[in-house]
């Protein structure tokens, strides 16, 4: 916790395409995500279980509760993520033929459909062709 008493929840993600780091982005932990953190601290809620990608370029804002143009959602590689100190890392892979297109947004969720969106990011177009394998590694830090 910081000296000013504020608890910050931040995130960043890496996009790995065909085994090579393609891009890195910061993200926005949305209001629903912060409320989800509070609920989890009291034992209410589901662990983060899925990541989604989409095609909207709408700016990320704290009030959003879903991707604007979701095209695919997959289960995380490790359900609930992996915690180390004050960070949690989530990873998700889209194999060949899965989640293809001109991707511009991604988000973390606690359900296979609907559910709470924890964090969202918007980025310049990343084209995932049918033969590509893409992994997103998302790190949430509590500071």
Tell me what the structure shows.
This protein has one helix spanning 31-41; strands at residues 9-17, 20-26, 28-29, 50-54, 70-75, 82-84, 87-94, 101-109, 117-128, 134-142. It is mainly beta and 143 residues long. The protein has one domain. Strands 2-1-10-7-6 form a 5-stranded antiparallel β-sheet, with no helix packed on it. A 5-stranded antiparallel β-sheet has the order 3-9-8-4-5. The chain is globular. The protein starts with 8 loop residues before the first strand and ends with a strand.
Please give a quick description of this structure.
This protein is mainly beta and 143 residues long. The protein has one helix at 31-41, and strands at 9-17, 20-26, 28-29, 50-54, 70-75, 82-84, 87-94, 101-109, 117-128, 134-142.
Features:
143 residues, mainly beta, 5-stranded antiparallel β-sheet, 1 helix
Poorly predicted sequence stretches spanning 5 or more consecutive residues: none
How do the helices and strands follow one another from N- to C-terminus?
A: EEEHEEEEEEE
Number of structural units classed as domains: 1
Q: What overall geometry do the principal axes of the alpha carbons give?
A: globular
């Amino acid at each position: 916790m910081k000296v000013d008493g504020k608890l910050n929840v931040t995130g960043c993600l890496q996009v790995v395409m065909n085994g090579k780091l393609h891009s890195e982005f910061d993200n926005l932990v949305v209001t629903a995500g912060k409320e989800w953190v509070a609920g989890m601290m009291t034992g209410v809620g589901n662990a983060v279980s899925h990541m989604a990608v989409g095609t909207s370029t709408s700016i990320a804002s704290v009030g959003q509760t879903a991707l604007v143009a979701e095209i695919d959602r997959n289960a995380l590689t490790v359900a609930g993520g992996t915690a180390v100190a004050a960070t949690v890392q989530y990873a998700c892979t889209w194999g060949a033929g899965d989640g293809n297109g001109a991707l511009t947004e991604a988000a973390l969720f606690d359900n296979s459909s609907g559910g709470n969106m924890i964090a969202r990011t918007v980025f310049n177009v990343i084209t995932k062709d049918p033969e590509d394998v893409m992994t997103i590694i998302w790190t949430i830090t509590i500071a």
